[in-house]
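Why should sequence recovery work at all? Because a backbone constrains its sequence more than one might expect. Tight turns favour small or flexible residues, buried strands favour hydrophobic ones, and helices have their own preferences. The token representation captures these environments compactly. In the example below, the structure is given first.
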């Protein structure tokens, strides 16, 4: 399956918006949140550790800590026995959804898979070396801010497994979310650097927001998709076109405002986020508190 495009990065990074825009391209099969990473890369330790451990734990995955144990299903020792069957399973599953979606489309479909679980980006791109990789990068502080808004009464995320966070639990949740962003971003960067340069593209959410048509053209060019009418697609899916009752603090479509974390995170929460993701932000070119102070 070489007509496969991954959207990696992090949830709450504009990936749903990007998928909806790319879905306008003829022959695209949009696959939204298959959660492969949550099956292939179960977090270790569990999130409760960020509220109960005396020291911040090191985040990793079951795939990493168990890989050398022969009883583990995905043990490295038995990779030759599960690698191709896993690849075939993923292909068959995506193709089944494509058959339902395409309705007689006469051509080679392109499967655009949004946020399959970016902490296993390396595994998925190794499974599918001829796939295209979109690295959709957003300031991690805005990602944490967006997720915090989802953990409240009446939020869109409650039916999907989130919960209303208690005031005394916010800081622990902030630390957990910051670690998740840092881990995923590190893994996606590693996969991006190892992937064929002809089959990858890095797009910042902030640039996608500032000049959507230009970013769409860049993505389509890297993905082998016809650009079509990027201006029309961008206009049709602009945040400002979303009805007021369908956007807001408790909605999946929230604010689309880069830098809103400065107003929404408390000083203590900003400090915690800076401690965890500051090095990543600096390496990726985002201005951190230290950079601001030095200016």
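From this structural description, the recovered sequence reads:
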């Amino acid at each position: 399956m070489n007509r496969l495009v991954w959207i990696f990065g992090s949830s709450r990074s504009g990936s749903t918006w990007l998928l909806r825009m790319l879905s306008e391209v003829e022959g695209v099969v949009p696959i939204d949140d298959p959660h492969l990473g949550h099956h292939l890369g179960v977090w270790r330790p569990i999130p409760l550790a960020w509220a109960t451990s005396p020291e911040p734990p090191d985040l990793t995955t079951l795939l990493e800590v168990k890989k050398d144990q022969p009883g583990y299903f995905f043990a490295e020792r038995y990779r030759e026995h599960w690698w191709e069957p896993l690849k075939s399973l993923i292909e068959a599953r995506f193709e089944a959804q494509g058959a339902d979606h395409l309705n007689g489309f006469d051509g080679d479909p392109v499967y655009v898979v949004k946020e399959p679980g970016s902490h296993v980006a390396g595994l998925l791109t190794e499974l599918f070396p001829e796939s295209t990789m979109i690295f959709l990068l957003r300031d991690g502080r805005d990602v944490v801010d967006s997720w915090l808004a989802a953990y409240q009464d009446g939020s869109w995320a409650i039916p999907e497994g989130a919960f209303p966070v208690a005031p005394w639990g916010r800081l622990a949740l902030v630390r957990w979310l910051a670690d998740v962003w840092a881990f995923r971003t590190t893994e996606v960067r590693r996969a991006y650097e190892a992937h064929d340069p002809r089959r990858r593209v890095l797009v910042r959410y902030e640039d996608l927001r500032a000049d959507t048509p230009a970013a769409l053209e860049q993505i389509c060019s890297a993905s082998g998709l016809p650009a079509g009418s990027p201006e029309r697609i961008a206009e049709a899916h602009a945040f400002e076109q979303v009805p007021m009752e369908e956007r807001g603090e408790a909605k999946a479509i929230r604010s689309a405002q880069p830098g809103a974390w400065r107003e929404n995170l408390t000083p203590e929460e900003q400090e915690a986020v800076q401690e965890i993701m500051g090095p990543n932000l600096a390496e990726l070119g985002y201005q951190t508190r230290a950079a601001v102070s030095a200016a």
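A few observations help interpret the result. The CA atoms of residues 27 and 105 lie 7 Å apart.
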